[in-house]
Amino acid sequence: MDLISKHNIVHRYEKRKLLIAVNCVAGLAIFFFGYDQGMMGSVNVSIDYGVNRMQYGHIDPEAKQVVVDNSLLQGGIVSVYYLGTLLGCMVGGWIGEKIGRIKVMALGCVWAIVGASLQTSAMNADWMICARLINGIGTGMLNVIVPVWATETASHTSRGQFVAIEFTLNIFGVVIAYWLGFGCSFVDNGYSPFVWRFPIAFQLIPLIFLLCIVWFFPESPRWLVKVGREAEARYILGRLRGEDEYGLAEAEFQDIRNVAELEKKSGKVNSYFHMFWDVMPKKIGGGSSGKLHIGRRVQLVIWLQILQEWIGIAGVTIYANDIFNQAGYSVFKSRWIAGINDIFYMFSTLIAVFTLDRLGRRVTLYWGCVVMGISMFLAGGFSRLSQNNANDDYLKGAYGAAGASFTFLFTFGFGATWLTVPWLYPAEIFPLQCRAKGNAWGVVGWSIGNGWT
Questions:
Q1: DSSP 8-class letter at 228
Q2: Using CA atoms, how far apart are residues 453 and 434, in angstroms rounded to an integer?
Q3: Is the CB of residue 120 less than 8 Å from the CB of residue 172?
């Protein structure tokens, strides 16, 4: 195939080997996404960062930790990142249909690299806020386009396996971010700028690597058909499915071409505005999708993602050190308990692989709500009891241990249920002709929910 670069791995690998290579690249992007989420947990408690640079707190001379005086500034620096992801996902979903998945992934890497570099070199709060906004835009682009690219190249028999790997790698990034930050906290007794600058700079490694290798991977066959590059799409599908499955690849190609024709007829209806406004009455321009009810589906994925974050997992992940410290543990012990909680969180994501399809989406959400609701209530209650018995070492330790245990159970419940379903839902309920933009609306909900919390 002369139209595709001779350096593209599609010429070298086929079938399972090619799919594994594609999923490895997608997994690298998702690992970065998880790392970027978990990174601020250790950065926020750095003395040089919180006191000297961002100036939202002071040092407790006895505990040698940051005491936050301006929680609005601290929270604003964290949440502005999610404003960036909101902007990035909308832009990424739109231009992804115009210039292709690979180029948007590369563009997202460039934005994230610039944002990460600016964060690493930040000298004050204004600098950091701008840097995190830029970094968030790049992350939003990657977050909206990588899952679409991966699912459009994978066969229906391997998508479930990829979803399991995706969420595990995402939380693995959170785990690496936390323990790297924990290790750096011992440099110069925690007073060195290295404590927070190195963990931020570390994200440049997967980003630069991803930017360099993404050009050697095949474009989405679906997008190629949409823009009229059918010969390339047919060749890539043939390599993905294997020469011995030519009939299957050809049938899939014809299905994609039929969907592309449908897209041309309904392109205006499937714009972001029409998808969102579709839930409104016809008298004011809604209902343009007819019985498909695209507007209802948009509201479902947006609010499901918002509710996912309102559950409180972002607070547990980012402020885990403070939570365990309030439960009565020392600063040092709080930090390593929070790190173990992240590891527990990572392994809990594998539970969904075995239960999600058997129980269904709604039952999974139901039992997750029950487990997390009870756990959060008891974790808060026992933590409060630990604080109220600060002068009794035995009761303080017992109540603190109980609070920490139920925090672990809360994290387990979320990883096994609510972490997965809101990300699967858009791919399952949106028609093919607007699936990429439907996924973008899901990321919008995720960004709003994270920024709000």
A1: T
A2: 29
A3: no
DSSP SS3 for 58: strand
122: which DSSP letter? -
The verdict on pTM exceeding 0.85 is no
Q: Are 341 and 406 in contact (CB under 8 A)?
A: no
Digit-coded pLDDT (tens) for 104-116: 999 999 999 999 9
Secondary-structure breakdown of the chain: helix, strand, coil percentages, each rounded to the nearest 5? 80, 0, 20
Do 323 and 407 touch, CB atoms closer than 8 A? yes
Q: What angle do CA 191, 197, 203 make, to 5 degrees?
A: 145
What is the Cβ-side half-sphere exposure of residue 180, based on CA atoms within 13 angstroms? Answer: 21
- Residues whose CB is less than 8 angstroms from the CB of residue 160 and which lie 6 or more positions away in sequence, other chains included: 353, 357
Contacts of 345 (CB under 8 A, 6+ apart): 171, 174, 175, 317, 411, 412, 414, 415
- Looking at residue 421, what is its pLDDT? 83
Residue count of the chain, please give it. 453
Written as six digits, the tokens of 197 are: 């600058």
Q: CA 180 to CA 230: how far, in whole Å?
A: 46
Task: Note the pLDDT tens digit of each residue in 114-127.
Answer: 999 999 999 999 99
Q: In whole angstroms, what is the distance from residue 31 CA to residue 173 CA?
A: 5
Report the distance separating Cα 41 and Cα 317, nearest Å: 7
Distance (Å, rounded) from C-alpha 54 to C-alpha 72?
Answer: 12
**159-184 helix and 194-202 helix, angle to the nearest 10 degrees:** 160
- Give CA separation, 446 vs 84, 303, 419, in Å: 12, 9, 11
Could you tell me where the DSSP H helices lie in 60-123?
Answer: 71-99, 101-120
Classify the phi-psi angles of 189: left when phi > 0, otherwise alpha if psi is within -120 to 50, otherwise beta: left
